[in-house]
Structures are given as C-alpha cells and as structure tokens.
Amino acid sequence: MTDTVQQRRGVPVLVCAAEGPPIVTTQDALDVIGATYGVADVVAIPARRLGDAFFQLRTGVAGEIMQKFVNYSIRLAVVGDIAERVEASTALRDLVRESNRGRHIWFVTDLDELDTHL
C-alpha cells in the first residue's frame, strides 16, 4: 500500500502507509509535510513508523517532529495502539491526553477515531 489522500468528514487526509519509511528525524517529518501541500490538511501516520525515540520523550524527537507539523499548520494524527507505551510513561500519557484535547496533534487508535477529531 502507498500513501493515499482520503476525504474524511470532508477533510483531505494524507494517510501514510504502514509499510513506508520510518519517520525518525525532523527532515523525515518535513518530507511528509511537503507531500501534503495542496492535497491534504491532516497527516495520519502509523505509530509504528515513528520509531522508539519518538515515544521516549526525553530524546526530544517527538517535540521536534510535532513542532514541525504545528509550524506548517498541518494537523498530525498518530494512528495505532500505543497503550503499552502510555502505561509505561507518565510523561507520554500526559502528552497524549493534552494533545488529544487540542486541535493540531492527536493520538488515535484508528482512522474512525480520527474522524471524531475532524
């Protein structure tokens, strides 16, 4: 499967393929952001493509990547079951909770849950 643009609740969403290249640096994030111009307002990235460092908040990787999406006004949805990671980290649990209250970055289990944020 390749990345596809889907209309979800009237919003164009770039749904990244689960088998795609890892997104582990800010340049990787910028490459994805670049693919959205003119075609999507939201990017849905499978959690497994983000690498372990993203979920280990002390590395700063999550903050750097998420900030790029905010700076370029592209909403980000991290899609997948990250329950084990959340249970293991109070900081990650807090980040997920606060992000899901906002309008720019969401952590969702599937695309149907993303629809509730759109």
In summary, what is this structure?
By secondary structure, this protein is α/β, with parallel strands linked by helices. The chain contains six helices and five strands.
Molecular structure report:
The protein is of the alpha/beta class and about 120 residues long. It has a five-stranded mixed sheet, sandwiched between helices. The chain is globular, with a radius of gyration of 13 Å. β2, α1 (about 25-35) and β3 (about 40-45) form a beta-alpha-beta unit. The model has no long low-confidence stretch (mean pLDDT about 95). It contains six helices and five strands, in the order ββαβααβααβα. The protein has helices spanning about 25-35, 50-55, 60-70, 85-90, 90-100, 110-115, and strands at about 5-10, 10-15, 40-45, 75-80, 105-110. The chain has one domain (about 5-115): Transcription Regulator spoIIAA (2-Layer Sandwich), CATH 3.30.750.
Give the overall shape, derived from the CA principal axes.
Answer: globular
| Biggest sheet, spatial arrangement of strands | 1-2-3-4-5
Fraction of residues in helix: 40-55%
- Give the tally of β-strands: 5
| Topology order in helix (H) and strand (E) letters | EEHEHHEHHEH
The biggest beta sheet reads:
5 strands, mixed
What value does the average pLDDT take? 96
- Which architecture does the CATH hierarchy give at level 2? 2-Layer Sandwich
User: Structural class of the secondary elements?
Assistant: alpha/beta
The low-pLDDT segments are none
- What is CATH's topology name? Transcription Regulator spoIIAA
CA radius of gyration is 13 Å
Separate helix tally: 6
User: CATH first level: which class?
Assistant: Alpha Beta
Which band does the percent of strand residues land in?
15-25%
Provide the domain count. Answer: 1
